[in-house]
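agent> fetching stored inputs for the protoporphyrin IX containing FE docking request
agent> found them:
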Amino acid sequence: MTPGGKRFTGGQRLLHWSMAACIIAMFFIGVGMVSTVMPTYVPLLATHKTLGVAIFVLALVRLGVRARSGAPPLPADLPAPMRLAAHLSHYGLYGLMFALPLLGWAMLSAGAYPVVLYGGLRLPAILPQNPALHTLLWNAHYYLAFAFFALVLAHVAAALFHALIRRDGVFEAMAPLGSRTGGPSSR
Ligand code: HEM
Ligand code: HEM
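agent> prediction call returned; pasting tokens
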């Protein structure tokens, strides 16, 4: 738990909201680039790879900050199944923030495609060339991207449930601005 505090720290909130914007953009860039036969595929893919690697680096920073600063506890009266769902979904979101970029990088490596980011920065291959593995990883990246999107939608629904129905201060703990003003169940 944040020492003496009831909200995520300013740095945690900044990381949460800037990464949320980047990840949501990645879903649309991903689907947009594979749906086009126009030359825009090339810059979209470059943006997708660069932003994806940036998300991976930010996820590492975020995990370090989380380990150091902790998180405010959930309201004491939150039912056990909701508490479990909150914890499991957060593990899932963190896992996918790492898995998707790694799968993207690994699938390009297995397909022997160069992983070149903005500024000509070329990342090394993390797997040897292997067409069967490339197909497997491409499918994993595809299905997990949509699983990630579904989990984010469920997460947003839960956040709105806390903000509008339970009004228990959970939303305010992560809100970009304002102070935490929960009901009697908040700390
Ligand atoms: C949070 C990170 C990421 C998310 C949410 C994400 C999401 C997506 C989505 C939604 C698609 C489209 C799937 C489809 O409709 O077929 C896609 C495709 C793709 N992504 Fe990612 N991605 C991420 C990171 C990366 C990274 C880091 C790389 C490479 C370094 C990468 C490389 C690719 C490639 C090569 C494709 C397929 C392009 C094609 O088949 O033409 N992705 N991604
Ligand atoms: C791609 C989008 C998003 C991702 C990947 C994401 C991820 C996460 C993660 C991993 C946590 C747990 C924080 C921790 O314990 O360190 C969290 C907390 C939270 N998120 Fe998101 N989030 C996203 C978008 C959103 C949006 C759009 C909203 C609001 C509408 C939101 C509201 C919240 C709230 C209120 C919390 C605090 C929950 C608590 O204290 O248990 N998130 N988010």
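agent> quick read of the result: The longest helix spans residues 131-166.
agent> awaiting further instructions
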